[in-house]
Amino acid sequence: MKAVILHGGQGTRLRPLTHTGPKQLIKIAGKPVSQWGMEALKEAGITEFGIVLGNNHPEKVVEYYGDGSKLGIKITYIYQGEPLGLAHAVMKAKDFVGGDDFIVYLGDNVILEGLDKLTNFRGSASILLAPVDNPQRFGVAVVKEDKIIKLVEKPKERISDLALVGVYAFTSDIFSAISNIKPSWRGELEITDAIQNLIDQGKEVNFHVIRGWWKDTGTPEDLLDANMKLLDTYLKEDVRGGVASSKIKGRVFISPEAKVINSELRGPVYIGRGSIVENSFLGPFTTVGDNCQIRDSEISNSLVLDGSTLNGVDLIDSIIGQNSTLVRRKQRFHGSKFVVGENSSVELE
């Protein structure tokens, strides 16, 4: 069995974080979003991966993952180009898949439960479903008498609360089904339409409902929620870097070459390689990326991505993009600078 990781999309709901790279490479709990899924698939026994690349800086994906050897897998890169739908992306992987069964995994999702149900599936397809409160955001499945009878992509009316969570298992039958469908009203080839075509042909399509946690990391709030859950579930206490005159409480991971000086860390907290934390407080559910510098600051429940500098700031529920700088300026007087247009009204406290 092979795995196809869909790594396209523009990530518009995550801008400006995605102006300079794909959303799937944003690090949460110390790893890119897509790496969490790929490692889970490896644990399920899959070692051959095809990554379908979009047009938002695909070179950064290749640069990060390389040939896959650092993860103990083999990676083949497949270029989709313009985002014309999930089914279009799957079709691009046809040559890579050959005649093998395969799992399709949306790279911006974190789904670590139920993958074992897909590695030994029956029929032409099997999908993971989960009950949701907002089904209009997802493709949904209508199930009756333990059978899927209908799939609809982002329904305008509530017809089911069982959402497709972004992991599918297919045989090569899916390629002929994709050839049979037409673009939706969104102008895309929908994977829900392709699976529906399998059902209409009388092919066997199975499903498994997951009840545990999963996350579509499509918004900043989703990223922070995923970071919190992953730190809470998987972070192990491990201090590999240098610590001087500091208090460490709870589960804290300090990477090699990182330094913590005269600070307090209250876990779960992750600090990346080569970062410096000095005269600061890092509260629970904070992830600091590689080569960051944090001084005279207080940060909780936040993501500080690689290469960022923070000095004299207090943050909560925040995401700081790569190579950003937040510095509190020290002024001798407190003043405000304005350019105010005519007929304006400004109130100051």
UniProtKB/TrEMBL annotation:
InterPro entries: G1P_thy_trans_l, NTP_transferase_dom, Nucleotide-diphossugar_trans. It comes from the Archaea. It holds the Pfam family NTP_transferase. Coiled coil: none annotated. Keywords: Nucleotidyltransferase, Transferase. Its EC number is 2.7.7.24. The keyword Transferase applies. Residues 2-232 form the Nucleotidyl transferase domain. One of its GO terms (molecular function) is glucose-1-phosphate thymidylyltransferase activity. PANTHER family: GLUCOSE-1-PHOSPHATE THYMIDYLTRANSFERASE (PTHR42883), THYMIDYLYLTRANSFERASE (PTHR42883:SF2). This is Glucose-1-phosphate thymidylyltransferase. It comes from Sulfuracidifex metallicus DSM 6482 = JCM 9184. The lineage of its organism: Archaea, Thermoproteota, Thermoprotei, Sulfolobales, Sulfolobaceae.
